[in-house]
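Chain A, query sequence.
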Amino acid sequence: MNNLSNIKTIKELLARHNFHFSKSMGQNFLINPSVCPKMAEYSILSKETTGVIEIGPGIGVLTCELAARAEKVVAIELDKMLLPVLDETLAAFDNIKIINSDVLKIDLAKLIKDEFDGLDVVVCANLPYYITSPVIMSLLESKLPIKSITVMVQKEAADRLCAKVGTRLSGAITVSVNYYAESEILFDVSKGSFMPSPNVDSSVIKLTVREKPSIAVSNEALLFKIIKASFGMRRKTIHNAISAGMGVSKDSLLEILNKANVSPTLRAEQLSMNDFEAITNCF
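Chain A, predicted structure.
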């Protein structure tokens, strides 16, 4: 189906299926025809070897571009009201499978094994703002056999996700993502590119999953507890923040920080990945 980025086409399509936008699901459909082809090009490795997991296909604008460039696309859509819409818009393709489910509840490891045997798997999605961090961290923490995650997110979230660790823009999500993947901002997308138009601009980012984590720690769970505690009180020094956040005495923590050769007067945003590695391994 052509012109899926055309406002008139979208309105006629949705009216035929009696579909109404859901604010709770963060539904904003793209009307800028240049965005999805670029996302697909950045995401796909090669047509013969790439399988794609798409999250939230909406009316199928990005899905069409992915299917034209990949061996197979599995799109996970939560809103069952969109299923008949997708049946119409994707009718020309035979390499797309739609699954009506919540991506945070589905067994993605089983899905990949069942649907993408022998293929390099990537994730590509226009993510609703409210589930950006949970979805990205779930994909990374699950240690799925995926090569990359190319997603459109709120611009502010993109800046934080792709910030350099140890800079003012960095946060707990920055450090956590850096542990698993290399991140980059590919291009920005203005709020006028959507219907209905959101209040903020977006950016498309790509996370290339590392073959092994960026630092070597003896206890991953402990690392993430330290990261969370460090950034839990951003204005406090790590000595005070980690002590309060993890219930460790200040004297004990000072001993750990000294052993790790990390100044107790630093704030979380000033720590490098190597600092987090040293603190974790000295705990």
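The beta strands are 29-30, 50-55, 72-77, 96-100, 120-126, 146-154, 181-189, 194-195, 202-209. The chain has twelve helices and nine strands.
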